[in-house]
Design brief:
CATH architecture of chain A: 7 Propeller
Structural class of chain A: mainly beta
Distance between the termini of chain B: 69 Å
Order of helices and strands of chain B: HEHEEEEEEEEH
Strand content of chain B: 35-45%
Structural class of chain B: alpha+beta
Largest sheet of chain A: 6 strands, antiparallel
Helix content of chain B: 10-25%
Strand order of the largest sheet of chain B: 1-9-8-5-4-3-2
Number of helices of chain B: 3
Strand content of chain A: over 45%
Order of helices and strands of chain A: EEEEEEEEEEEEEEEEEEEEEEEEEEEEE
Largest interface: A-B, 42 and 30 residues
Shape of chain A: globular
CATH class of chain A: Mainly Beta
Oligomer: heterodimer
Number of domains of chain A: 1
Radius of gyration of chain A: 18 Å
Shape of chain B: elongated
Radius of gyration of chain B: 19 Å
Number of strands of chain A: 29
Strand order of the largest sheet of chain A: 1-2-9-8-7-6
CATH topology of chain A: Methylamine Dehydrogenase, Chain H
CATH superfamily of chain A: YVTN repeat-like/Quinoprotein amine dehydrogenase
Chain lengths: 321, 185
């Protein structure tokens, strides 16, 4: 159920009956279903789909903002982004604004949204309060994953077709740096300490480990075929990586720097995130249109929940992460 | 480590990339029920060098090596495919398109563009046989990007829909013919 409030000049606002991303609530996973043009909301503890909400055309990227009030979604073919704002306990407002030619990677800080444009090879900076674009930052070719590091006031961008990662100083974008990683980096993950950045290289089938102080690649960890995205456990001991062509997740022991085991998941796994307590790893399966819940303590599959066609969940999609 | 302005780097990297793709990957799943035992169906479907024996659009198959087949199409042109995985116990095989012949080269948005025999990029697929209620179910599942890699508008015949329609037609033609061959009295 949704009520259209306003639709003028491309701006599109709807009210949805949905649970907001409240900090105290049970963790929810916001899953972009790219081939269904909607977002599924899954209650992780209850293992249940609690809502499905229309967004723009072909949603891909998603990010739960650190203010715990906003969830942002990139609509790749719709050339727009959708911003979910919690209004009351039961309702959220969804605002969709046109943005760029191919918005894919998306992330946010307390005040701003950062959107990587696949075709325009830049990142747009959008102020959350006004939803106005306040800056653009040129990056490498076909930028994919983006992550903000508030402690270092940086933005990290994986440039898929430049085989590099841009390290952007948000205080002075001209002082930014680009470093070479593996072949076709897509997803990025940052350790909780912020000391290590991980770039998942789709074509070389490995993960580049970047020391964020020296900005050097310190290791390349082999994973499966066509790896896509990764997430670090809250204790920084493990890295989980989706392998699209193997239908598996690689579990990396970061102390020894190698793969510990692999876990069979659904078909063509893409997005991955972990609950704040580190217990549940949620894997988004594009091919089978569902999510796999992995118990991170015992490294086995606890459940599988249907989400939608072409599920991607590209970004950090769990609330209170 | 290169220490350059990211703005400057935009000018230094190559504009085209062989493995570039659009933002939305497409998927097609088609299946057919066949009144024949799964083992008998898999004997045909699981033979990577014999697609021409049951797919009406394929004239012949030439094996380049154990895992690479070159399909000659009935309408002309070739598709080179690589076997990624085959599992006789699960009756499942995975393959990808490595290369396709060009139908025509034309100009679009001021640049030369090649039209391939199928309007898809980065294509991979799974063919599997499972026991059905009576007989077998064959499922063909493909994932791919559209033929045109850059941002819209797309040239005629190279949109997301064109890619999905073309692959759906290929799967239907093959599965329907397989059914009629195996159910022939």
């Amino acid at each position: 159920m949704c009520t259209r409030l306003l639709s003028a000049g491309g701006l599109h606002v709807v009210l949805l009956g949905l649970l907001p991303a409240a900090a105290a609530a049970d963790p929810l996973a916001y899953i972009t279903n790219q081939l269904d043009d909607n977002v599924s909301v899954i209650d992780i503890e209850a293992r249940a789909l609690v809502g499905t909400h229309p967004v723009g055309h072909r949603p891909a990227g998603v990010y739960v903002c650190p203010d715990s009030k906003h969830v942002v979604v990139s609509n790749a073919e719709g050339q727009s982004i959708s911003v979910f704002t919690a209004k009351t306990k039961e309702q959220a407002q969804v605002t969709t604004i046109p943005l760029g030619q191919g918005p894919v990677g998306i992330t946010c800080t307390q005040s701003h949204i950062y959107v990587a444009d696949w075709y325009e090879h830049l990142v747009r900076v959008v102020e959350i309060a006004s939803l106005h674009t306040v800056a653009t930052i040129a990056v490498g070719q076909s930028p994919a994953g983006v992550l903000a590091d508030p402690h270092r006031n940086r933005l990290y961008v994986a440039n898929r077709d430049s085989d590099s990662v841009s390290i952007i100083d948000l205080a002075d974008t001209q002082a930014s740096t680009e470093i070479a990683v593996g072949d076709a980096p897509f997803g990025l993950a940052l350790s909780h300490s912020g000391k290590q950045l991980f770039a998942v290289n789709v074509r070389s089938g490995d993960v580049s480990v970047i020391d964020t102080s020296t900005l050097r690649v310190t290791a390349n960890i082999e994973v499966g075929t066509w790896p896509y995205c990764a997430i670090v456990s809250p204790d920084d001991r493990r890295l989980f990586v989706t392998n699209q062509e193997d239908d598996t997740v690689s579990v990396i022991d970061l102390e020894i720097g190698r793969e510990l085991t692999t876990i069979d998941v659904g078909e063509t796994p893409e997005g991955i995130d972990i609950s704040a307590d580190g217990r549940w790893v949620i894997v988004v399966n594009w091919g089978s249109g569902n999510v796999t819940v992995i118990d991170a303590e015992v490294l086995t599959v606890a459940d599988t929940i249907t989400s939608g066609r072409g599920s991607r969940g590209f970004g950090r999609f769990i609330t209170t992460h | 480590m290169r220490n350059l302005s990211v703005g400057l780097l935009l000018l230094l990297v190559p504009i085209t990339n062989l493995f570039a793709h659009g933002p939305t990957r497409q998927q097609v799943t088609e299946s057919v029920s066949i009144d024949a035992p799964p083992q008998q169906v898999w004997a045909m479907v699981g033979n990577f060098s014999a697609l021409h024996e049951w797919h009406p659009a394929i004239a012949s198959t030439e094996m380049q090596d154990d895992k690479t087949r070159i399909l000659s199409l009935a309408q002309g042109g070739t598709i080179t495919e690589e076997l990624k995985q085959i599992d006789d116990a699960k009756m499942m095989l995975k393959y990808r398109i490595a290369e396709m012949s060009t139908v025509e080269t034309f100009e679009f948005a001021g640049k030369p563009l090649e039209r391939k025999v199928l309007p898809v990029n980065t294509y991979s697929a799974t063919l599997s046989v499972a026991a059905g209620d009576t007989g077998s179910t064959v499922t063909w599942k493909g994932k791919f990007y559209r033929g045109y890699l850059l941002n819209p508008p797309t040239p005629e015949g190279m949109s997301d829909k064109d890619a999905v329609d073309a692959i759906t037609a290929v799967y239907r033609a093959g599965l329907d013919n397989l059914k009629s061959m195996l159910e022939k009295p």
